[in-house]
Amino acid sequence: MTVRGAVPEVIWARPERTGRGPKPAYTRDDIAAAAVRVADAGGLDAVSMRHVAAELGCGTMSLYNYVPRKEDLYELMVDAVSAEHEPWEPSGDWRADLLRVAHDTRALLHRHPWMPRLMSPAYGFSPHALRYLEHCLACLDPLDASYGTKLELVAMINGVVTTYVRNELDTAERVRALPWSEEQENAVRIAYLGSRIGSGAYPRMAAAFAEDAGPIDLEAVFQRALERVLDAYALR
Hints:
This protein is about 60% helix and about 0% strand. It is mainly alpha-helical. It folds into two domains: about 10-80, Homeodomain-like (Arc Repressor Mutant, subunit A); about 95-235, Tetracycline Repressor, domain 2, CATH 1.10.357. α5 (about 95-110) runs parallel beside α7. It is flat and about 75 Å long.
């Protein structure tokens, strides 16, 4: 629903305080930290103005004086977590540096499992997110490509990392909900799959499984996915 007379705005374009009246009891950093604690403990669905206000120890309506919309609260949260990307001196090997960024991002998303749901361009230009992007571009200085291409590469790598982590988190959540062990679940599914592959109805799948019947190395799959994205841009 569109509110009559409403205009789009960015929370970072608004002053944190006007300079008039008493000093606010909380800063944006205080509010962001409280919201992140709520999300880390109960997931993104637990984040509400009421819960964040309770975490801060203030009234819900008081919080609206600092953060008018829930979307603004999400943006503060993304920025707070983006601050965990500590810039380091690029090595001069853009591939190695971007792989390091990717692995750092994967670890960050596992520390804050709700973050993949907020990985959106809408929240990608906060102060700490901009610092992260600038660092990625610094890592890509040795790559002979336009800045538009470099930003596209960073977005591609972030997409691979986010998709992979979401799959990891979804799998972990599903396993936790099982009334039996993961090994029992896998054994039943592998037996069923084997019976279907052995039926002769799926010759290409049978050939694929015959090629490599060993367990899948998920860490190696993650690394190969990243490497192949980098390969595509190196060929330019």
